[in-house]
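Listing S7. Sequence submitted for prediction.
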Amino acid sequence: MSQIVHVNEVASKGIFISPVPAGVGPMTIVSLLKNALLAVQLNN
């Protein structure tokens, strides 16, 4: 998963913008899925 971000458009919405050359790694994906599952559990 990788996205192209137009830095000038999002600079005011974020504090830090750092490039990730090869996209997100496996630990990032695991963390996102864990947080998504937790959010679903908390909303039920």
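Caption to Listing S7: primary sequence and predicted structure tokens for the chain studied. Helices lie at 7-10, 26-43. Residues 7-43 form one domain.
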